[in-house]
Amino acid sequence: MKQRIIAISMALLVPIAGCKSGPQSASGTAAGRPADATSQVSQMVDSGSGFDFYLLNLSWSPEFCYAHPSASECAAHATFVLHGLWPQNREGPYPENCSTAPGPADPTEYKDIYADAGLLEHEWQAHGTCSGLSADAFLRTARTAFKAVTIPPTLNTLTSELSLAPDQIVDLFTASNPAIPRSSLVVSCGHNYLTAIEVCLDKSLHPVPCGAVRSCRANTVRIPAP
What we know:
By secondary structure, this protein is of the alpha+beta class. Helices cover about 30% and strands about 15% of the residues. The protein has a single domain (about 1-225), classed as Ribonuclease T2-like (Ribonuclease Rh, Chain A, Alpha-Beta Complex). The chain is built from seven helices and six strands, in the order ααβαβαααβαβββ.
């Protein structure tokens, strides 16, 4: 039990530990996005940004809340929550801490995706500064990506612990998100517990193959209920 709590703390309480490069990781249009969102995001993106694709990390909130039951975000009994939108490279290390550009003008505008102001600031400084976007444009892009993913009903209404193979979790997501192919989805786990689902996206938020980003290697993973 102690080992599990330590693992969760390292993966989620300190967000940088969960930020992974594509090749070294251990772990159409996105479904539901309005048709004009793609063009809006494309206009904001600096095509010269030094990365290949985004890795959208949706953390399984119950694993974090198991170790931190008093955390503010745990009161909502959420399922998947936004951890980050991370610029990645197909080869070599991922970019991070690319500048000291200021964060958003009004951080409270993004409470719907980041209840924790410290996590928002970390995600901007470590990852957003490498996106080629301003802080507000990056966070709006992260919000668009997050809200475009439909959480499968089986997981969104979970009332008791469930055990599934990683491929079965991917099956649930592709069924709920027909525009996201299997090749764009990665299951992340720790000590045979689900920690996150990740989606690989291009700079305009279209799903792309994850390539060398490795998925969970466990035969089955345990999914605790909120």
